[in-house]
Each structure stands twice: as C-alpha cells, then as structure tokens.
C-alpha cells in the first residue's frame, strides 16, 4: 500500500510555510510523496486576490520544483466548481485503490472538520494529519494524527498585501514564485 500525502489549499500564493509543513509530514510519516492540490472554489472561504486557477497552478508548480517528493495534483482544478474534499478523494481512490491517502490540514481546519461535506464518510476513507499550531483547539471527534512542525507564521493574505504594497517577499516565497508574481503583475494594488 502506497502512502501519499495530499495538501489542499488555495495556494494564492504558495509560501515557505506550506513547503515546510509538507516536508515535515512527509518525513515524520514516511510518505512516498506529498501532492499539492490547489482547489478551484474552496467551500469554506472566498478566493481573494483576482488570480486565475492557471496562475495558482503555475505558482504551485514553481514552488515545489526541485523536490522529488513533491508533486502537483490537479484533480480539483480539472473538475472546476466547488472543491469538496470527499468528491476529490473518492475520485483519487477510484484511480489509485492501492494508495492510503494522508490529508494534511492546518490547526485552523481541525476545529472546522465537523462542517466538512460528508465528513463521516471522508474520515473513514482517508487519514487526516493535523499540523499543530498554538491558539487553535485540537479537539475533534475524528481520528487525526497530530504532527509538530516548526512554527512559521505566514499567511497568503499577508503575502498578497505585501506584494500589493511593493514590500519584499524575499525568503517568504520561493524565488521562482516571486519572479512569476513580479513578471505577471499579480497582486498589484488596484
């Protein structure tokens, strides 16, 4: 049975916090790979930043470039519409029945799990991996593996604001992602 991590998100933009979290889970749980899966329309939040799916896919691809254990998963972007994890995981399990999937979520999502679409079935077909962060409850009725990772207090929202203000993104995003943002005028102030 293959062990594969899935890290879903808007990745608007993908930053070093995402990469560190994925890398820590990869090694702690001895996974074969971690797939970064940009969602099309997240059910739990508004997609800010006026950036196309294609741009988010490209930035994610650039962010994970050079790491042989990181892959891009396009299932949710390809399907379009609201990205419910249950639909995606059913699809992936149909294609890869020999794979045990580990869905990586941040501490903020742990307390939100009861609101996920068809959560009871989802909790039966995948393994949840929660990344601990101070200030968030880890209480949940669902089976979840908790992982300690180095604390990196970054958010894509703050990074979009920095880009719009012309502030430096150096060391906060991979260099190729910064270059892509600059070359394509993403997140510029309106």
Automatic annotation (TrEMBL):
It catalyses: nicotinate beta-D-ribonucleotide + ATP + H(+) = deamido-NAD(+) + diphosphate. GO terms for biological process: NAD+ biosynthetic process. One of its GO terms (molecular function) is nicotinate-nucleotide adenylyltransferase activity. The keyword Transferase applies. Its EC number is 2.7.7.18. It comes from the Bacteria. Pathway: Cofactor biosynthesis; NAD(+) biosynthesis; deamido-NAD(+) from nicotinate D-ribonucleotide: step 1/1. Residues 6-162 form the Cytidyltransferase-like domain. Keywords: ATP-binding, NAD, Nucleotide-binding, Nucleotidyltransferase, Pyridine nucleotide biosynthesis, Transferase. Signal peptide: none annotated. It is an enzyme of class 2 (transferase). HAMAP family: NaMN_adenylyltr. Belongs to the NadD family. PANTHER family: NICOTINATE-NUCLEOTIDE ADENYLYLTRANSFERASE-RELATED (PTHR39321), PHOSPHOPANTETHEINE ADENYLYLTRANSFERASE (PTHR39321:SF3). This is Probable nicotinate-nucleotide adenylyltransferase. It comes from Domibacillus mangrovi. The lineage of its organism: Bacteria, Bacillati, Bacillota, Bacilli, Bacillales.
């Amino acid at each position: 049975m293959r062990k594969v991590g899935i890290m879903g998100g808007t990745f608007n933009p993908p930053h070093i916090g995402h990469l560190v979290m994925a890398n820590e889970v990869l090694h702690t749980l001895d996974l074969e790979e971690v797939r970064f899966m940009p969602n099309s329309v997240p059910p739990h939040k508004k997609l800010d930043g006026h950036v196309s799916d294609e741009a988010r896919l490209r930035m994610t691809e650039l962010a994970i470039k050079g790491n042989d254990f990181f892959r891009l998963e396009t299932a949710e972007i390809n399907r379009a519409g609201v990205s419910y994890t249950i639909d995606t995981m059913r699809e992936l399990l149909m294609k890869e029945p020999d794979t045990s999937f580990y869905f990586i979520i941040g501490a903020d999502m742990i307390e939100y799990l009861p609101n996920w679409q068809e959560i009871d079935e989802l909790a039966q077909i995948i393994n949840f991996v929660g990344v601990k962060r101070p200030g968030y409850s880890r209480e949940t009725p669902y089976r979840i593996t908790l992982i300690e990772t180095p604390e990196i207090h970054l958010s894509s929202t703050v990074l979009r604001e920095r880009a719009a203000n012309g502030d430096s993104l150096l060391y906060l995003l991979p260099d190729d992602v910064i270059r892509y943002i600059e070359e394509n005028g993403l997140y510029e102030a309106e």
